[in-house]
Amino acid sequence: MCGRFTATNPKAILLEMVGEDEHLEIKARYNVTPGQTSTVVTVGEDGSRRLTEMRWGLVPSWVRKPTSGHRMINARVETVAEKPAFRDSIVHRRCVVAADGFYEWQRSSGGKQPYLLRLNNGVPFGFAGLWDCWRSPDGRALDTFTILTTTANALVEPIHKRMPVMLNRQQREAWLVPWTGSESIHQFCEPFPASAMEAIPVSEYVNNPAHDSVECLQAVPLPARQTLF
User: Is the overall model pTM greater than 0.85, yes or no?
Assistant: First the structure.
């Protein structure tokens, strides 16, 4: 799964996808957690790209109460088209979540060690996402999103069995193309190449969801006898 991520330089990817915007002021994020808002790129009915702040944890438009979001922070790309909560969104409401890293925790006899996983060239990327809009009885709108996951690559697998669907530039464009059938999903099932990524052990400071500062990225040495592989 993907339960925390970073977007320390989101403006770079957002400008690439949406174009120059003099009003674009996006705060760097070092520890985005479920229930918080983050910036996503969506496609309007007229085909134009839009930047939207949405809450992480998808709430389907048809549910009575918006309490399901904490359970729907992720959706498996292999089965997303079959799930009632996501079937409509996969057709009509895809999005790209601006990011440049994510955290996972490796379990060991000594506890859980957090790792920051990112591209080894430091370039930002995007997560494949879906979104939906839930409306309260009085008409208030709640826009929410989920991040798609796939099987882990060789780098991530020792830490966690799943990883988010990471999109390079060409894939970001392809992901936002209108739905053309289940075959269009298959190209996104392959995990991002492990050779293009790095896993950095970081301090337990990131464990606290309230912490959202550069200290979350602080690399630490692994304890003796503990290695990733």
Answer: yes
Q: Is the pLDDT of residue 22 over 60?
A: no
The DSSP secondary-structure symbol of 98 reads E
CB-hemisphere CA count at 13 Å for 47? 2
- Find the catalytic residue in 25, 82, 95, 104: 104
Please indicate whether residue 104 is annotated as part of the active site.
yes
Whether residue 216 lies in the annotated active site:
no
What is the residue extent of each domain of the chain? 5-217
Mean pLDDT of 148-153: 97
Q: Which fold has domain 5-217?
A: hypothetical protein yedk fold (3.90.1680)
- The one catalytic residue in 2, 16, 133, 198 is 2
Query: According to the model, what pLDDT value does residue 121 have?
Result: 94
CB under 8 Å to 40, separation ≥6 — which residues? 51, 52, 53, 54, 95, 96, 97, 98, 129, 131, 145
Task: Supply the mean pLDDT for the chain.
Answer: 89
